[in-house]
Write a structure and sequence with these properties.
Length: 74
Amino acid sequence: MKITNRTDLGPRIVDGATYEITRLVWQDGGLSYEVHDADGQDLTADGCFDATPTDDDLRSLPLSRRSCPQTPDN
């Protein structure tokens, strides 16, 4: 499925760590949220969030990395 829009939601700082959150809009209207660390590493490598991640979600990422499905259109 094709991503039709990406919106940078800006940096978010949790416990001193900086996370960049990006909202993805899919062709069918679905939403996903990617999270990258300050170095640009995708922390959602095993699956994006379906809703804006909470601080607790972000705290859990370094322990359990979660990437959006990659398609040729990404």
